[in-house]
Amino acid sequence: MHNMVTSLNILLAEDNLADARLVKEVMREGKFLATLHHVEDGVEAMAFLRRQAPYQDKPRPDLLLLDLNMPRKDGWEVLDDIRADADLSGLPVIIMTTSDVHSDVQRAYDRHANCFLTKPVELEDFIRMITLLKDFWLTAVRLPPA
Known about the structure:
alpha/beta, 5 helices, five-stranded parallel sheet, Sig_transdc_resp-reg_receiver
């Protein structure tokens, strides 16, 4: 039986601060047992996942929300790094991006992303998507132990 008392740790790798704030808001309002950690680019994301400075005291995430278009190291490189790393390869990765290009969707699944979401332009649609994501991934889905 899945233990609902356990708080999940979610890493959001997102350079758009407005989108990141919105994700945080929706998560908080949903009063969910999840801690949202936020980094702004792929270099920070990999340091967080590998618990390198300044993230050595951070918990290992149960789930990664990954934007594709980020500075320094983009989401594609992060996804490749994760899937090539024996310690991280099983981490569930949800791509959350502005792209709705079919080739990007195909490329993401070819690289073993667990889910591909296109960020809606309209605010209420974006909120609905984050709420659905939260309800599905944090309630229905059984995640691997971190």
